[in-house]
């Protein structure tokens, strides 16, 4: 019983945090809230995990949870790793732009589609901060 | 194109090479006027040493890796009007004379890329383990890129401006060597391999790639393929 209360409290904190961060996180926050609700369901009705597990050919509910956790973690790891690589690429482009501007003064030579330098002076156009992923691979 | 008036830019990527960079550059400057050093965020005096040798220097604000430094150098050289771009190591393993051999081969064979090959050329004092690793790398590169190069990790390479402008080196660190070969395959560039000399001095052996780097290179290439 105590564990159910502790887990429910933890899930409630995660859900509350996700909801308060909804502006910063697009739909990640709703996925997270959904997950906490699913988690809460299994906290209060753990027998259900066994029912579902048996249905899938797994002996115990906890085993099913373990398998699910492993799969989810792998997806998450790959996703995070790829994200890091994208960010490294962005940092590289940024550093390169700095280096080449120092050398060539304003002209950076190569146009890279979406990364083409803004040739008019910075004061003439205001560009909104763009968090969307780059247009090309 | 007339070989005598075409501009050859030599790109030298350097990281913490303050000890030898001036003498390497002095040798190059005897034969060539246009040398560009990319200082990849060195903590030592590489940049000022290079400048005092009288060459053009581009500095990375942070250390990104040899692949990134070469890409920056190639873009800079093209912006500065290069007709040919040659990559050259900063540690004294290469000979300036071989730059001539490469450019000559580009013109004679009328190809996009000339790649230095130490196995048909000369490899002085090469450690046996290094040789084995390099030969394995050659096989691996062929399997992953479909292009058979005997010495894919040779830093001495020459490109026509057209070929260089199509290169997009996204591997910042040591996997860039295989990536360049992959790019040659991807853009269907014509190439020729040229015998060159590579000298292993105590200095360059200290700094050279360790065996474990091979694993990192493998990982980079696999995940690089996922990304593309």
Textual characterization of the structure:
The complex is a heterodimer of chains A (137) and B (228). Chain A is built from five helices and no strands. Chain A has 137 residues and is mainly α. About 16% of the residues of chain A have low confidence. The relative contact order of chain A is 0.05. Chain B is of the alpha/beta class and 228 residues long. Chain B contains nine helices and seven strands; from the N terminus they run βαβαβαβαβαβααβαα. In chain B, strands 3-2-1-4-6-5-7 form a seven-stranded mixed β-sheet, with helices on both faces. In chain B, α1 links the parallel β1 and β2. In chain B, α5 packs parallel to α7. The relative contact order of chain B is 0.16. The interface between A and B is medium-sized, with 21 and 23 residues.
Helical segment count of chain A: 5
Major sheet attributes of chain B: 7 strands, mixed
Strand order of the largest sheet of chain B: 3-2-1-4-6-5-7
Helices and strands of chain B: which structural class?
alpha/beta
Spatial gap, N to C terminus of chain B = 35 Å
Series of secondary-structure elements of chain B, N-terminal to C-terminal: EHEHEHEHEHEHHEHH
- How would a textbook summarize the main sheet of chain A? none
The run of helices and strands of chain A is: HHHHH
Q: Which two protein chains have the largest interface (Cβ within 8 Å of the partner's Cβ), and how many residues from each?
A: A-B, 21 and 23 residues
Query: Helix content range of the residues of chain A, please?
Result: 55-70%
How many whole angstroms does the radius of gyration of chain B measure? Answer: 16 Å
Span between termini of chain A: 51 Å
Give the oligomer, counting copies of the same chain as homo and different chains as hetero: heterodimer
Mean pLDDT rating of chain A: 81
Secondary-structure class of chain A: mainly alpha
SS strand fraction of chain A: under 5%
Label the overall shape of chain A: elongated
